[in-house]
Amino acid sequence: MPSTTYAVLIADVMGSRGRKDLRGMLGKKLAAVSRRHLRRKLIQLPYSVTAGDEFQTVTRDLPSVPAIIQDLRIALRPLSLRIGVGFGTVSGRIQAPVNRLGGEAFLSARQAIENIKTGNLYKFKVLTAFVSRHEHFDRAINLIYGLHDTLVLRISARQWETIAEFRDKPTLGQTARSLHLDESTVSRNLKRGYYWQLSETVKIAGSLIRHTFC
Question: How far is CA 156 from CA 37, 147, 153, 195, in A?
Fold first, then answer.
């Protein structure tokens, strides 16, 4: 029987040293995201803080990884994240705590986040990186996310607020009423916050993962 391919996500909080009660804020936000992602069967295990400002999870739903990344970036605001994703096998039974698991996917995820920290991928700043056995896949998806992250780094706090509200109330009218704005302002915030480009990245990257691994 062929081995199962998993995706492991390792994320850490940028600029964490300057934040008071980071552990409490991170734990509360991750608990809420874990409940939502487990209910939707996007992840195998709850997000677990494994070291200070770092957390991990593992999933078999590989095409959903881009949606998971986007949801984490929205749900954990105002915290900014670096996210490394590794594809491969996992040693042993999938069970909590996640930091006791190991295998190819974990090693690849660790390499991915180290590539972000050391700036090994490009001459421009990135927030997301992928490592797998497939060189051409890695080159393609890392370039997609390198360009994607260039936009993410330019999104303002108000634009993130509009994106988060629009995600939960996906009409201009509902979002406008919730934020006490007019619809034209909501539309402008979504456009200037690159919401539509971010949404297309999720679709295209998910399709690329599906065609490579599924």
Answer: 26, 17, 8, 12
* Rounded distance between C-alpha atoms, residue 21 and residue 16, angstroms: 10
Contact by Cβ (8 Å): 30, 54: no
> Are 174 and 162 contacting, i.e. CB atoms less than 8 angstroms apart?
no
Report the length, in residues, of the chain.
214
Full domain range(s) for residue 85 = 6-153
Q: What is the CATH number of the domain that holds 80?
A: 3.30.70.270
- Neighbour tally for 143: CB within 10 Å: 13
Whether 184 is covered by a domain: the verdict is no
Structure tokens of 120? 């090994």
Asked, for residue 1, whether it belongs to a domain, the answer is no
Per the domain annotation, does 214 fall within a domain? Answer: no
Q: What letter does residue 68 receive in the DSSP assignment? A: H
**pLDDT tens by residue, 155-174:** 999 999 999 999 988 899 99
What confidence tens digit (pLDDT) does each residue in 88-113 have? Answer: 999 989 998 888 899 999 999 999 99
Domain assignment present for residue 162? The answer is no
Q: Please tell me the total count of domains within the chain.
A: 1
